[in-house]
Amino acid sequence: MKHLLITLLLSIFTLHVSAQHHDDKVDKDKLKTLKVAHITEQVSFTQQEAQAFWPLYNTYEEQRDALQEASRERKKENLEGISEAAAKKYLNTLLKIEEDYYSNQKEYYLKLERVLSAKKIIKVIQANRSFRKKMIEEFKDRHKKDVKK
């Protein structure tokens, strides 16, 4: 009976985690779709520009996300009682991640210059910012509604 109960609880937990992972994936996909639509609407790409832009953008976003995740993971580390040598190594790692982030961004802009005008690159930057701002505002509004409930 005890084994049956443990098995049942593990099954329920596994299903819950799996469903949550699926929901997170759906949310990320939905957010990405909204972002693509927002950028497309704001920039007004020609068909040729869109075909050249989106692969560059997707690669840049993947690399940027990986660097941000690496930075977040490093910042989660427990630094209590760290030695001076380990602290220097930690700082150098953070600086390397920052250098890689800006190097990636510079490379991305250089590649974009081959397929888009400077004006459209600025529109892409502005569209990214306005999308992020829009999502933050929506999150704040939802949070306010949840608090009122």
Q: What would your notes on this structure say?
A:
This protein has 149 residues and is mainly alpha-helical. Helix 1 packs across helix 4 (118-148). Residues 1-5, 7-11 and 15-22 have low confidence and may be disordered. Among the domains are: 82-115; 117-149. It starts with a helix and ends with a helix. The protein has four helices and no strands.
**Rg (C-alpha, Å):** 21 Å
Q: Tell me what portion of residues adopts beta-strand conformation.
A: under 5%
Report the span from N to C terminus: 41 Å
Q: Multimeric state of these chains?
A: single chain
Number of strands: 0
Mean of residue pLDDT? 83
C-alpha geometry? flat
Q: Which regions are unreliable across 5 or more consecutive residues at pLDDT < 50? A: 1-5, 7-11, 15-22
Helix content: over 70%
Number of alpha- plus pi-helical segments: 4
Q: Could you describe the largest sheet, including whether it forms a barrel?
A: none
Question: In terms of structural class, how would the helical and strand content be classed?
Answer: mainly alpha
Q: What's the order of the H and E elements? A: HHHH
Q: Could you write a compact summary of the structure shown?
A:
With 149 residues, the protein is mainly alpha-helical. The chain has helices at 2-43, 47-75, 84-113, 118-148.
Q: What labels would you give this structure?
A:
4 helices, mainly alpha, single chain, disordered N terminus, flat, 149 residues
Any chance you could write out the topology, listing elements then pairs?
Layout (H helix, E strand, L loop, with lengths): L1 H42 L3 H29 L8 H30 L4 H31 L1
Helix pairs in contact: 1-4, 2-3
